[in-house]
């Protein structure tokens, strides 16, 4: 990990989630030594389903994680669809390869993806590349580098010196709190989500992401595994969601808590269709977790000298666009690209910030406004969510234009992505003299 012709100070990475692992794999690819510091004592495949958009899958492919590898943690998505409360289609489109992208879209189990990245990192960098039970709680500048203040699980604090510090330490980032001590509190817009997984027969294309209901009262579901060859059942990830008055703030205390089905299923009783029995699907989950839909107001910069924010620490956003994890992966690759141009230097961090901060901050606010689910708002406004022919409510051209605007803002425009040069050219390496 530290050959003699490379400086000893590694790039320190706070957080071993998807973003942190993607940074470490990228830095290894371009020849930059790094060390991941993760607060939990043992990594486990926690979480439920997430979507990886083609722009992120492209980057994973370029890291050597091709389809045959990603197929072990999820399934290639074929369709994205919105369906009204009365069961009639509002909008649908092919996704991934079927849409014309050169890369698929994936629906994956978040924890299994994280563990895949972790195993790959250990295979490539060795067991010393990740230190568990170590939380970065602060930082200070040092001549020619940065010092991370690290706290162990037993409360012992020590300092580690690195060339740079990349904070991928999530929603409650201690690094972000130090960088922006006057940041507003976590923002909750009133939406409550209940999430679970249930064995079930995949609907529609067999790999469809489906949003069902209205803007303030809906269910989202998609498979995150292929059907079992014997039972025909796949693992169906689902999110049940309502929006309530948020004037009193979030009062539950926990940002995620296990709940009983009976605490919320009343909101979805009677949601029965020929092709889906929603209450039965919800009751089929072994465990359910409740989350408020939250984000943070954007900050003007993600960089302070030799320290940079990445992933949720930089831009936690509503999951309405299915691009939180995808953007963290893209962040990591853009950061690697700026190091190739500017070296392992503060200049590289500034270039990363200039490339992404403004545009992704705008995406955070766009997702707060419902993201691609904003089509449901139009339907609600025009017909109360009940219709026989969607073309008389929101004409096809208007629906297509709405989605095109969102894709362009999220970096998902097909032709632009397909024709873009690789973020990191094959074989590119940071030269020794570019450490400063």
Structural commentary:
There is one protein chain. The chain has 436 residues and is an alpha+beta fold. The protein contains twelve helices and 22 strands. It has helices spanning 18-29, 54-62, 67-70, 110-125, 174-179, 278-283, 312-315, 324-342, 346-368, 374-383, 396-409, 414-419; strands at residues 11-14, 34-38, 49-52, 74-76, 79-83, 89-94, 106-109, 130-132, 134-142, 145-152, 157-162, 165-167, 187-200, 208-214, 217-223, 234-243, 257-259, 272-273, 276-277, 288-295, 303-304, 307-309. The strands form five sheets. It has an eight-stranded mixed β-sheet with strand order 6-5-14-15-16-13-20-17. Strands 8-2-1-12-22-21 form a six-stranded mixed β-sheet. Strand 14 (208-214) and strand 15 (217-223) form a beta hairpin. Helix 1 packs parallel to helix 4 (110-125) and helix 2 (54-62) crosses helix 8 (324-342). It is globular, with a radius of gyration of 22 Å. The two termini are 19 Å apart. The model is unreliable at 1-7 (pLDDT under 50).
How are the SSEs placed, and which strands pair?
Layout (H helix, E strand, L loop, with lengths): L10 E4 L3 H12 L4 E5 L10 E4 L1 H9 L4 H4 L3 E3 L2 E5 L5 E6 L11 E4 H16 L4 E3 L1 E9 L2 E8 L4 E6 L2 E3 L6 H6 L7 E14 L7 E7 L2 E7 L10 E10 L13 E3 L12 E2 L2 E2 H6 L4 E8 L7 E2 L2 E3 L2 H4 L8 H19 L3 H23 L5 H10 L12 H14 L4 H6 L17
Parallel strand pairs: 1-2, 1-12, 2-8, 5-14, 12-22
Antiparallel strand pairs: 3-7, 4-7, 5-6, 9-10, 10-11, 13-16, 13-20, 14-15, 15-16, 17-20, 18-19, 21-22
Helix pairs in contact: 1-4, 1-8, 2-8, 8-9
């Amino acid at each position: 990990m530290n050959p003699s012709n490379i400086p000893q100070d590694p790039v320190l990475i706070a957080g071993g989630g998807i973003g942190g692992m993607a940074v470490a794999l990228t830095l290894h690819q371009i020849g930059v030594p790094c060390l991941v510091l993760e607060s939990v004592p043992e990594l486990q495949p926690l979480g439920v389903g997430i979507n990886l958009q083609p722009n992120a899958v492209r980057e994973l492919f370029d890291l050597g994680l091709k389809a045959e590898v990603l197929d072990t943690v999820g399934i290639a998505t074929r369709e994205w669809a919105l369906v009204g409360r009365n069961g009639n289609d509002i909008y649908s489109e092919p996704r991934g390869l079927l849409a014309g992208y050169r890369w698929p879209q994936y629906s994956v189990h978040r924890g299994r993806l994280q563990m895949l990245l972790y195993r790959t990192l250990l295979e490539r960098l060795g067991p010393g590349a990740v230190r568990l039970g170590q939380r970065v709680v602060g930082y200070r500048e040092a001549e020619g580098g940065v010092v991370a203040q690290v706290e162990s699980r037993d409360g012992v604090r020590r300092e580690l010196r690195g060339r740079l510090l990349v904070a991928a330490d999530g929603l409650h980032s201690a690094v972000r709190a130090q960088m922006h001590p006057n940041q507003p509190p976590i923002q909750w817009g009133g939406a409550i989500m209940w999430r679970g997984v249930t064995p079930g027969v995949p609907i529609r294309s067999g790999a469809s992401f489906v949003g069902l209901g209205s803007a303030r009262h809906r269910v989202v579901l998609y498979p995150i595994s292929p059907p079992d060859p014997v039972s025909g059942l796949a693992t169906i990830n689902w999110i049940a969601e309502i929006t309530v008055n948020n004037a009193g703030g979030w009062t539950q205390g926990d940002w995620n808590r296990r709940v009983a089905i009976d605490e919320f299923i009343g909101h979805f009783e009677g949601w029965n269709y020929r092709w889906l029995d929603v209450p039965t699907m919800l009751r089929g989950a072994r465990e359910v977790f409740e989350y408020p839909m939250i984000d943070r107001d954007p900050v003007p910069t993600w960089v302070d000298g030799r320290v940079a924010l990445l992933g949720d620490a930089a831009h936690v956003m509503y999951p309405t666009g299915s691009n939180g994890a995808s953007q963290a992966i893209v962040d990591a690759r853009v950061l690697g690209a700026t190091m190739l141009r500017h070296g392992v230097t503060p200049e590289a961090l500034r270039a990363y910030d200039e490339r992404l901060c403004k545009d992704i901050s705008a995406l955070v606010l766009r997702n707060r406004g419902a993201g691609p689910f904003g089509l449901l708002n139009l339907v609600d406004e025009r017909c109360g969510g009940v219709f026989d022919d969607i073309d008389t409510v929101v004409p096809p051209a208007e629906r297509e234009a709405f989605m095109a605007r969102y894709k362009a803002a999220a970096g998902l425009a097909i032709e632009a992505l397909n024709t873009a040069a690789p973020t990191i050219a094959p074989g590119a390496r940071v030269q020794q003299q570019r450490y400063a």
